[in-house]
Amino acid sequence: MQNDKIAELLERIRNHNPLVHSMTNVVVTNFTANGLLALGASPVMAYAKQEVADMARIAGAVVLNIGTLNETEVEAMLLAGQAANSAGVPLLFDPVGAGATPYRTNTARKIVRDTRVSILRGNAAEVANVVGQEWAIKGVDAGEGDGDIVDLAKKAAVALKTVVVITGETDIISDGKVTYAVKNGNALLTKVTGTGCLVTAVIGAFAAVESNLLIASIAALVSYGIAAETAARLKGAEGPGSFQIEFLNQLARLDGKQIRELGLFERI
Amino acid sequence: MQNDKIAELLERIRNHNPLVHSMTNVVVTNFTANGLLALGASPVMAYAKQEVADMARIAGAVVLNIGTLNETEVEAMLLAGQAANSAGVPLLFDPVGAGATPYRTNTARKIVRDTRVSILRGNAAEVANVVGQEWAIKGVDAGEGDGDIVDLAKKAAVALKTVVVITGETDIISDGKVTYAVKNGNALLTKVTGTGCLVTAVIGAFAAVESNLLIASIAALVSYGIAAETAARLKGAEGPGSFQIEFLNQLARLDGKQIRELGLFERI
Amino acid sequence: MQNDKIAELLERIRNHNPLVHSMTNVVVTNFTANGLLALGASPVMAYAKQEVADMARIAGAVVLNIGTLNETEVEAMLLAGQAANSAGVPLLFDPVGAGATPYRTNTARKIVRDTRVSILRGNAAEVANVVGQEWAIKGVDAGEGDGDIVDLAKKAAVALKTVVVITGETDIISDGKVTYAVKNGNALLTKVTGTGCLVTAVIGAFAAVESNLLIASIAALVSYGIAAETAARLKGAEGPGSFQIEFLNQLARLDGKQIRELGLFERI
């Protein structure tokens, strides 16, 4: 795994504009769609039980995000997830706020039980709660807490038979056997709502063009992190509003040269 | 039809701040409201079946957009559309993603059957699917495809007894007898989510102050296109984030002088 | 009450990052979350009846906003409001568009009847309609109208046994006995959607760290107003897009020095 590979996958996204079907929360829909467009992917959002399976089958990746879940949407998420599974479409799951309320925790566990999630992406507390480990959480945004995040990622990957991505100051990616750490990123991402949700969708875009989901995840996190670093360098001092807009610019402007110079990840 | 007329209609919007009732998708609500406010119109969004008819009756225009449709909202859209019809309020319809799934296609056809749509706005694939012509589509964003767009616009206008607006590199507006092409606009609009949805709402704002809906549509597309051109010239090189924000600025700053100098449309 | 107190409360928000549970409308979710994050609070949005009470109990403040209300959400809002009441969590209510349709007016009155609202924030027309006074309204945004706003605030506070905040060119805050006017703010706020909704959430953030709700409200309005003034001074001339982004920057950059120099309020 080299930065060259990441640059190649980014080119593939820009050449093929993979359709990423996101069933995400009402807070981040616009930012998610604009982030995917900036990167070069094609966002689509569809929530009705009458159409989610049809949309999932024609997508390059399906993303389920329970940030503002309700009964009707969860039912549709299961249909979309199962349709993605049947069609061999990568299924990503972002268990926003798992652990914050029993309903979220239980729903997250139902989703990993009733569908085959290809990639689970959350913060440490969310991932811990999905697999039934204790972890402190406040609302839906916190979740660093204590504990060994690398160990958690590995165990969760084994338990769920999936690739697990735990984002934080360092991002950990594991399929249970092989584990990587990605160092790219910037703390300003935590001052903009939906940057966690968007990264899951961006991993989806990479998973749509690369069947090795460990590689797809690393490539997405490195790309995303470099765009954030560049945006922070150019506009971070102005504040989170300017950073958010520049981050969209940088997702669009990211190129192979930047990736080769700045990509920072290692097998651990 | 002259650019002077367009400038005059823009002034009317700014003097009267027409209320545009948008029942739109969850991805573009914020951008639609901010775009309408920037232009000088008053956005309102209401979705509950208990109030949509009341809101539609006091609006200057009603916009239905099925981008993230569900059963409950479609039911409310029909109520709003019928109330708009009864009250003589222009009814706009944006059949987002018609053709992408059977549910979308069928719902779009139900809306044009059970209400009297005043203006239908979509890309070529969406319009084709509403009227039952074959057209390639991917997700909800593509839809240039092949085929004679001018012919499609005319036929759809005749079939639906409505003004049809097909947006793309060149925008085509037809009532079935008279057809116009608008050349204003910029490709960066395709890199920002919701620019198609917003243009439908902007046509609604013009339709609220001009009863000739062909003229209202042309005026809206020229105004919108010039704002996009100016934004692209000033900030396009920075990326889609900066362009999006500058586009809102330019919707607010657009004036008669720009329209007279830059408006580019012709009868075809 | 001095500007020093406001500066101290802002510091408290930044040190404690209070969780503000917003059940708000689909137009403003993203802007509300980003505004709260910029200020230093932790936003959470949850709408499902299965979890709103759990979320409300762990929140520092709960905000109900009926901008795009529907039956299901109103039911959940009542559950969240009652849970906040039982747990002693401040409950804020933003009756968006009360008076625009009977459904909104009736729902707003139901909410103040079936929960104990700690702080009601609206424009004059909305507040008047909640308490049953006549007031002109157009859609959900207007509502200056005529009438004595100070008198309305006092009467509404007495009638509802709550703190009432009426925002406008001058903001009026009253608990029925003590009444303040806040002069900070900028007219550009009216050109960005959701600035009224966000200010209610920001009052919630201050209410989470200050039990005197009159003081919390004044502190929030002064802080918000200064951020708007600074943003308008720096970027207002560019247009509402740039202003919106700079406003988020300024919510993050606001400091005690600015508050002490620019805070402008008085008891009336």
From TrEMBL, chains A, B, C:
GO molecular function (one): hydroxyethylthiazole kinase activity
GO biological process per UniProt: thiamine biosynthetic process; thiamine diphosphate biosynthetic process
Cofactor(s) this protein requires: Mg(2+)
Keywords, in A-Z order: ATP-binding, Kinase, Magnesium, Metal-binding, Nucleotide-binding, Thiamine biosynthesis, Transferase
InterPro entries named among the record's database cross-references: Hyethyz_kinase (IPR000417), Ribokinase-like (IPR029056)
Gene3D superfamilies: 3.40.1190.20
Reactions the enzyme catalyzes: 5-(2-hydroxyethyl)-4-methylthiazole + ATP = 4-methyl-5-(2-phosphooxyethyl)-thiazole + ADP + H(+)
Family annotation (CDD domains): THZ_kinase
Nucleotide-binding recorded as keyword: yes
EC number: 2.7.1.50
Statement: the UniProt record of this protein carries the keyword Nucleus: no
Binding site for ATP: 121, 167
Binding site for substrate: 45, 194
Classification via Pfam families: HK
Recorded metabolic or biological pathway in which this protein acts: Cofactor biosynthesis; thiamine diphosphate biosynthesis; 4-methyl-5-(2-phosphoethyl)-thiazole from 5-(2-hydroxyethyl)-4-methylthiazole: step 1/1
Organism superkingdom: Bacteria
HAMAP family: Thz_kinase
Family classification: Belongs to the Thz kinase family.
Summary of the function given for this chain in its UniProt record: Catalyzes the phosphorylation of the hydroxyl group of 4-methyl-5-beta-hydroxyethylthiazole (THZ).
Record-given protein name: Hydroxyethylthiazole kinase
Native source species: Ammoniphilus oxalaticus
